[in-house]
Amino acid sequence: QVQLVESGGGLVQPGGSLKLSCTASGFTFSSNAMSWYRQVPGKERELVATIFSDGSYTSYADSVKGRFTISRDNAKNTVYLQMHSLNSDDTAVYYCYAWTGAYWGQGTQVTVSS
Hints:
Distance between the termini: 39 Å
Mean pLDDT: 97
Number of helices: 0
Oligomer: single chain
Number of strands: 11
Helix content: under 10%
Low-confidence stretches: none
Shape: globular
């Protein structure tokens, strides 16, 4: 059974940091490029960051470049999203996505508010 389980979301003040985790099971994680997406109600899901299966390449949306870092630990079947300098525009549900199998996690809420 394929599972992607996100964690680490929550409420954070503007300027703060959070680190999201997504742990995979039921498929070959190390063969999949992984991405983080986010979605605000009423808007389309937005691609935030992507990392190749071996971690050799990463890419970011312009809106998060320089503030967010995607990384992975294939030994732990986990992909991470470190987020710094958060602002209200980063408030969303964050989802992880496995490219080869087109698998989605259930999402974790990030709320940036004072």
